[in-house]
Amino acid sequence: MWMRGVFCFVAVLFSSMTFAEESTPIINNEDDLSQIVHQLSDKNDELRQNMELQKNHLTSIVNEQNNITTQISHVQNTLATLDEQGEWLSFSTALGETLRQQLLRLPEKPKSQALDAEIAEEKAQQLNYNNILISLDDYPILTSPLNTLKEATQYRRLLREQTELLKTLISGSDTTILELTKLKIANKQLTNAIDEVNDAAHRYFFWVADVNPISLSYPLDLAKDVIYVIFSIDTLSQLYNASIEVLSAPKPLFLIILSLLFVFTHFKMRTKYNTFLTKSANRVGKVTQDSYSLTLKVVICSLIMALPVPILWAVFGYALQINWDYPVAYALGYGVNAAAPILWVFIISAHFASSNGLFISHFGWSERSVRSAMKYYQLSIWLVIPLVMIVMSFDEYNNRQFAATIGRTAFIFLCFALVFMTNAIHRAGVPLYIDKKGSGDNLLSHILWFILLSAPWLAIIAACLGYLSTAQVLLGRLEASVIIWFALLVIYFMIRRWMWIQKRRIEFERTKQRRLERMQRAKSQEEDINSLNDSVDEPVIDLDAISAQSLHLVRSIIMMIALISMILLWSELHSAFAFMNNIKLWGTSAIVNGTEIEQYITLGAVCIAILVMTITVQLVKNLPALLELGILQHLDLTPGTGYAISTVSKYIILMIGCMIAFSFIGIDWSKIQWLIAALGVGLGFGLQEIFANFISGLIILFEKPVRIGDTVTIRDLTGNITKINTRAITIVDWDRKEIVMPNKAFITEQLVNWSLSDSITRIVLTIPATIDADSELVIKLLLQASDECEYVLKDPEPQVYLVDIQEGIQLFELRVFAAEMGHRMQLRSTIHQLILDAYRCHNLTLPFPPLQTNLEALGRKSGRRSYTVGTL
């Protein structure tokens, strides 16, 4: 056996050696060898060139690293200078100008995307070198009899040389990747340093005057700068040359032509657009023709029709901005681009405010008020837009050379224009906040209008005193906030119109159904149904009364969106308000790493705590509606489960929000946990009933023995449950009185829930008859009365029994079923009337006046066994 194994091993070894010899190519003639040697030589020359390029690239990377290091040092020195001189900025305008010049000389932020692409390319090249190195093993072997010694030696030398070159290149790629990574880290450090300087500059310069206050020499300086701009810097010549270059460049010329086509199409479509608005306005308010899609179409068409002119405006700005050789053209392009979004907003407002537009026809706003609000529309187009262009252009031109004169004058005129526009809108009665009653006449709206009306005047005063940049930034943020606020107001009225249309349709269908029923009862089919549609024109519906909860939800959601938008919009100015962190209110101690240190609560921390509590309160108030609208309605949950989830979520959010807010003012959990524990023990003894009701409320929410709308009997009280709170449950009895019952009673006492799993209830009526009456006839009459009663269910079917004979009286028991608790009394009344009618028709008499037999009285009189109603 072992001899056979050795033989097999030798055979396998021999076959593998033979296969290896067959798989390795062999050079059989000298021509092939010369060709391969020539290829190797060319490849080695290429690798040497790559090695030289790699060395040069590595040198450039190292030089770039040194340059970045120098820039980081320069930025850090600038930051140190700002920190040292920042407190003196308010005393010297010249110092501020000097520091601003240093900020203008800061390097630009490096782009990390290019380095990432370069690293990826270097790694790919390294992988390629590895593949070439591995492929060297596949080169053919030499056969000594067929090759000369010189060519064989050259062949082997070239292979060794290529191997060394590849290894060197692979090692160089490793070094290059390492240096590129170091350069990327240095770029990140430079970016962080520049961000720190910008934050510090924003913090120090925002509340510092950036120009000199207006003095008696200001008109003369203004005139000199205007003359200098027009004649000395060759403004018209620069604009002319820039226009020539724009018309000769293919890309901006194509964009301008395309924008002009859009504008031409816009003017061609205006007639169709106006016709569409007229048709839509004629359909609004008619029940059978009005639809919410009309409003959506009007909004979309108005936005599209307002686009072409601002697009052309923005294209002109872009075309001017690409001309870096002409500073005037570049600055003007910057101003044109800044004014394009404002122009779009003005044109949209004009479309919405047209006689057949969104505001008047669809929202039902007063045409007189809308016309009053748009009184200065021409002023906004022909004055505000040019002023915005001038302000932004001179803010960009030549390090704000003329911002203190021409730019400030244009900004003051712009503020005066905003004063006229804002007063016109305010006199028109446009609300800034709508309360629960749907009215814009409330305290918050008055406060917002006061801020909005005062802002332009404050900006004028600040600009005259030299705080030009501060006034521009704050006024710009405020106007952007107003635009967002008005956009959300339009969205609110759009949602309100959708709800109004839905209510009108429901009321119309109900009215039409009632009319049809009356027509069927009267057997009058002469009137056409179409005439009915015309007769039911405008059912009056008080939307705020019917849909108060829905509108409150909409208002809450919009308020949350507005609050978040304001936070995001003003978040860029957080460093400008860093001075509030220097206003210390009180001190507190904190333990950090086992060491107790003194901390101070600042005005900024208090403001943040107030903001956190405001957001928390809004979330707690609106969380049930938000959960129901966004999540719970899409889940297969019972009403009690959804209510339990909403309630528990409210308490969790309230607890988290309070802890976060308290932590900002120095009240953290570590300091109050013992107080809370002591209060918990004290309250556990003193307020144990309240805690018992609270825990019982949680049990009720999750176990759901009762639900809102259930009919229950507890103690001697029967009624419908209308509210389930964490402490008590509100029950409305049949007299419409509201009774507040503690939750503990529903857990510890006997409770009858008439509609927990099934709303069907049984009613047992005891009907007497004389002893000589035909019992079969009486049973038949009782069954007939139950069949004729509309409130009696057919399934389960009614039942009649002769249950007892007492004192010469037959006692029959009629057992019927009602669909819900609200039908019980109506069923009793109706079936009693039917039974009385049946007795009269068949000459049957009742043995005594009461319809319901008092069996307990009969039992006491006769001494016989009394019969309990409803038993067998």
Automatic annotation (TrEMBL):
Signal peptide: 1-20
GO cellular component terms attached to this protein's record: plasma membrane
Molecular function via GO: mechanosensitive monoatomic ion channel activity
Domain Mechanosensitive ion channel MscS C-terminal: 763-843
Location in or out of the cell: Cell membrane
Domain (Mechanosensitive ion channel MscS): residue spans on this chain: 690-755
InterPro entries: LSM_dom_sf, MS_channel_1st, MS_channel_C, MscS-like_channel, MscS_beta-dom_sf, MscS_channel_2nd, MscS_channel_C_sf, MscS_channel_TM-2
Main location group: membrane
Coiled-coil segments on the chain, per record: 30-64
Sorted UniProt keywords: Cell membrane, Coiled coil, Membrane, Signal, Transmembrane, Transmembrane helix
Domain Mechanosensitive ion channel transmembrane helices 2/3, residue spans: 647-688
UniProt keyword annotation of Repeat present: no
Domain Mechanosensitive ion channel inner membrane as annotated: residue spans: 254-586
Entries under PANTHER family matching the protein: MINICONDUCTANCE MECHANOSENSITIVE CHANNEL MSCM, POTASSIUM CHANNEL RELATED
Family matches, as NCBIfam families: PRK10929.1
Family that this chain belongs to: Belongs to the MscS (TC 1.A.23) family.
Protein name: Potassium efflux system protein
Species of origin: Gilliamella bombicola
